[in-house]
Design a protein that fits this description.
Elements (H helix, E strand, L loop, with lengths): L16 H17 L4 H42 L2 E3 L7 H4 L10 H4 L12 E3 H4 L12 H30 L47 H8 L10 H16 L7 H16 L3 H4 L2 H20 L2 H10 L8 H26 L3 H4 L2 H8 L21 H22 L9 H25 L18 H17 L3 H11 L5 H18 L4 H8 L18 H4 L7 E2 L4 E2 H14 L4 E5 L5 E6 H10 L7 E2 L16 H7 L20 E3 L4 H10 L4 E5 L5 E6 H16 L1
Length: 714
């Protein structure tokens, strides 16, 4: 049974979970009624299998895109040092398998044995640029170092600026503002026959411009999965820009990671693929099932941890143009910020092998277990060969530089993740502690804590300390627990260190919660003012009542009064000018509630009757059309029905005749559960006699919860 047709959802409005669930149930019921025929059974089988087909295609495409991004990033990262002779498309690790990087001042910084050979196939920029001096026609000494440093900085700067320009120019939220043809804009509605203009918001603050390809994307994905719509955020343009920009920004050497953006990329793929199937194209609630699976695929390809990816997905996961002068100033500031950060990154990272490494490479070496004969870029020390002081100093410098640059880099307008930088910072600290414990065990083996080691020199494994430090740091940053522990187990392919890792994760989260209750993604959601309803948060309601939150000033439609197309248009345009109203309650003169109609539905209905501004529209609460409208709009439904629905002025088709209601004396905790557990888009407040009092929509409720949090911390 139909309970109101829904049309399109506008950006930053909540989807109607209940309506989408009912619509899908009606669709399944129609399919099951046709199972008597062979064709009907095939259609049922295809319907049950289409979800698996989509996630399979999404998983394959995400893996391909991730492979291309990683290989491109490796090539561009090594391009800052040189290129492969005869195969310029190969990164250094593929051009010279098994070769070891030789950097300026490596004797003082990394203590690399001088006997290792250079790779003959790899040509550095000091070999290419300027006059040839020294043996073999290459630069030597300080001149070689200056050329390599200059080329490293210029290429890194070019990569970062290109990534930022692509992000700002191609994925500004203002590029994705679309308005469908609307009856409220028909020329017959304007004064003196003149065409009316697009409604301009006069109340409330203008929404800030978002850049869809910037940052990790996880806060926005959490917002979308919670039931809000952000047009363009999961589209093809964003997918292209995020993928290309991610490879460029990571290759530039900025302190950021690929893991968070992979979740965004995977959700873009999931959204695009699912739109080829009507089951998901016409149902926003069902499509979010695919997006949840895609988010898990993004984490899986980032870490090679499918179980951890699934757990991470479970555990975490119109607009106004600014004035031209402000836009140009903002553009200039963003480009300047990217240039400054890249220059600082290049200056601080070039002289130290550990700061110059890519994030994944650094974490790999810091977590490595040292066996006899291993070197691992200087992180391995032995009692008969090394003193830990210089190595600890080099890693400590990397800890400070990487930590400071991560704080700055995560906020600039380039695709950026926080996973690998956080793991790198924690691994640096853990490796320092591990090396210190190794030195103590070698020099004071008689201490009680080392008695169980006996004469074993490798009793203390510094890589384990690095792994524990990495897990604790990432837990403190993102506040993930179970999924993070599983990811670490899958990365190390070992369960030997379950207890220390889980303890470190819990301690890291506890300490971080004591300092700041919100994790990095929740803080980004707050700063970006995204309409996200946190289902994990607990609130103290105090003396507030439902009537304190309910919006009693929302315009209503009286069904027993004359409602012409023009008067309804005036109500709609006034509501759109505020930017806060999502619909109109339908009541009688004695305030008896009959139903609810959304602004998008009313706008679409008025568009169909734009030629008759003085015609009367009516709402029939007894409307009982036994049909399930799965189409995206009334027009497509009309075509499917063979044109039998002949009264376009009867707007009963769009009414929600059974809106969720709550009495004014109910506790606020009940309202919270309705929004969280039922996925309500709006709730009607009634008095003890059932008369209409006001409306609480989801955005109003989220704003109220924000005020509660501010009062709590005041």
């Amino acid at each position: 049974r139909v309970n109101g047709v829904r049309v399109w959802y506008s950006s930053f409005t909540s989807i109607d979970w209940l309506h989408d669930a009912i619509k899908d149930s009606s669709r399944i019921l129609r399919l099951r009624k046709k199972r008597t025929s062979f064709r009907g059974r095939l259609r049922n089988l295809a319907d049950r299998s289409v979800g698996w087909l989509i996630v399979t295609v999404v998983g394959f495409l995400v893996a391909v895109i991730a492979f291309l991004v990683v290989r491109s990033e490796q090539l561009l990262f090594d391009l800052k040092e040189g290129y492969c002779i005869g195969a310029w498309w190969k990164a250094k690790r593929f051009c010279c398998p098994g070769s070891v990087k030789l950097l300026p001042f490596q004797t003082y910084v990394t203590f690399k044995p001088p006997t290792e050979d250079m790779c003959e196939q790899w040509r550095t920029w000091s070999d290419v640029l300027g006059p040839r001096v020294g043996p073999g026609g290459s630069h030597v000494g300080d001149e070689s170092w200056v050329i390599e440093y200059a080329s490293y900085t210029v290429i890194a700067l070019a990569l970062a600026v290109t990534s930022s320009i692509l992000t700002i120019k191609l994925t500004a939220s203002t590029r994705f503002v679309t308005r469908k043809d609307s009856g409220v804009l028909g020329p017959a509605f304007g004064p003196d026959g003149n065409e009316t203009k697009e409604p301009v918001a006069q109340g409330g603050a203008p929404r800030k411009v978002l850049y869809f390809a910037s940052g990790s994307g996880i806060p926005e994905i959490k917002t979308i999965l919670s039931g809000f719509v952000i047009h363009g955020y999961l589209g093809g343009v964003t997918l292209f820009t995020k993928s290309v920009g991610l490879a460029l920004s990571v290759a530039s050497g900025l302190s950021l990671g690929k893991e968070g953006p992979f979740v965004h990329i995977a959700c873009c793929v999931g959204n695009i693929v699912s739109r080829f199937f009507a089951k998901y194209e016409n149902n926003e609630g069902k499509r979010r099932e695919i997006l949840s699976a895609a988010a898990a695929a993004g984490v899986a390809v980032a870490f090679g941890a499918p179980i951890g990816g699934v757990l991470f997905s479970l555990e975490e996961v119109s607009y106004f143009f600014p004035p031209k002068v402000m836009w140009r100033s903002f553009w200039c500031a963003m480009i300047a910020a990217v240039i400054i950060v890249t220059l600082v990154t290049s200056a601080l990272c070039f002289l130290n092998l550990y700061t110059r490494m890519g994030g994944t490479e650094l974490v790999y070496y810091l977590l490595a277990e040292c066996r006899p004969g291993d070197y691992h870029e200087g992180v391995c020390i032995y009692p008969d060969r090394n003193v830990p002081g210089p190595i600890v100093s080099a890693i400590a410098l990397a800890l400070i530089v990487k930590g400071a640059l991560t704080i700055v880099t995560f906020g600039i307008k380039v695709p950026a993740g926080i996973f690998i930088p956080s793991l790198g910072v924690g691994a640096c600290m853990g490796r320092i502690v591990g090396i210190g414990m190794q030195w103590l065990q070698w020099n004071y083996p008689h201490w009680r804590i080392f008695r169980s080691c006996g004469d074993e020199d490798r009793c203390v494994i510094a890589g384990v300390y690095a792994m524990v430090g990495a897990a604790a740091t990432l837990s403190g940053v993102t506040r993930t627990t179970v999924s993070l522990a599983v990811i670490m187990f899958e990365l190390t392919k070992s369960l030997s260190y379950v207890v220390p890792i889980m303890l470190a994760v819990l301690v890291g989260k506890t300490v971080a919660d004591a300092i700041e209750p919100k994790g990095i993604y929740d803080l980004v959601i707050t700063l970006a003012q995204l309409p996200y309803l946190d289902h994990k948060q607990e609130y103290l309601w105090g003396a507030y009542q439902i009537t304190d939150i309910a919006d009693k000033s929302v315009a209503v439609i009286h069904s027993d009064q004359e409602n012409t197309v023009k008067t309804l248009r005036d109500k709609l345009q006034a509501a759109m000018s505020t930017g806060m109203v999502e619909g109109f309650p339908l009541i009688t003169s004695d305030r008896k509630l009959l139903g609810y109609i959304g602004t998008n539905e009313l706008e679409h209905a008025l568009a169909l009757v734009a030629d008759g501004p003085d015609a009367e529209c009516h709402f029939n609460p007894a409307f009982n059309r036994r049909r399930s409208f799965d189409a995206a709009s009334f027009t497509s439904s009309l075509n499917e029905d063979g044109g039998n629905y002949t009264d376009p002025f009867d707007f009963s088709l769009y009414m929600d005749r059974a809106p969720i209601c709550v009495p004014s004396h109910a506790p606020l905790a009940l309202v919270q559960q309705m929004f969280v557990k039922l996925g309500a888009r709006y709730i009607i407040v009634t008095d003890a006699n059932g008369a209409y009092v006001g409306v609480i929509d989801k955005k109003t409720w989220i704003a109220f919860l924000g005020e509660l949090e501010e009062e709590k911390h005041a």
